[in-house]
Write a structure and sequence with these properties.
Chain lengths: ~110, ~120
């Protein structure tokens, strides 16, 4: 059974600092990995999708890396802003039928 | 492009009552998912449809939960009777054809409180 772990569970940083969010998974046999953002009381917004054959994906200030063999992904957010405050979830697709999610990292960026 | 639509946004019911949630996926998306997200946890898949057929319902508590997607477009999820532990956000998502290398897009969710 695929287990997805996100550490830390919560993170508070001053504005301007770079954010590093970690995701680990137990089974390296995945199709892809997806990072989501969730604002309080809202649904999930897809940030980045990394295919199993890729090492990283970039979108603006966001960069996500994938090391499938070691079961790890890292989401980097450069020059954080208060608007980046949210919960960030990673999810792996171990089969056609599902996404397996971590519990998320709740980020607070202090102005 | 319109996103995944869900209704209602919020629902409060007493235990043992029934409740239904509705989801309309992105146009053209053949695959539809229902997830349950309990506070402080990541979403957990309840059921996945490919068009109007069920692909995976292994984690759906079938004694009280049911879901249908009769015409392969919109879907309803029902709970009858509800228990206190069903309090959660119910998220609907869709993706194109269910291919593994495509993104899943989520709706805003329905927050259910069972009292």
């Amino acid at each position: 059974k695929q287990e997805v772990t996100q550490i830390p569970a919560a993170l508070s940083v001053p504005e301007g600092e770079n954010l590093v969010l970690n995701c680990s998974f137990t089974d390296s046999a995945i199709y892809n990995l997806q990072w989501f953002r969730q604002d309080p009381g809202k649904g999930l917004t897809s940030l980045l999708l990394i295919q199993s054959s890729q090492r990283e994906q970039t979108s603006g200030r966001l960069n996500a890396s994938l090391d499938k063999s070691s079961g790890r992904s890292t989401l980097y957010i450069a020059a954080s802003q208060p608007g980046d405050s949210a919960t960030y979830l990673c999810a792996v697709r171990p089969s056609l039928s599902k996404l397996s999610f971590g519990a998320g990292t709740t980020v607070t960026v202090r102005a | 492009e319109a996103g995944v639509a869900q209704s209602p946004r919020y629902k409060i019911i007493e235990k043992r009552q029934s409740v239904a949630f509705w989801c309309n996926p992105i146009s053209g998306h053949a695959t539809l998912y229902w997830y349950q997200q309990i506070l402080g946890q990541g979403p957990k898949l309840l059921i996945q449809f490919q068009n109007n057929g069920v692909v995976d319902d292994s984690q759906l508590p079938k004694d009280r939960f049911s879901a249908e997607r009769l015409k392969g477009v919109d879907s309803t999820l029902k709970i009858q009777p509800a228990k206190l532990e069903d309090s959660a956000v119910y998220l609907c998502a869709s993706s194109l054809k269910g291919l593994p290398n495509t993104e899943a897009f989520f709706g805003q969710g329905t927050r259910l409180t069972v009292v």
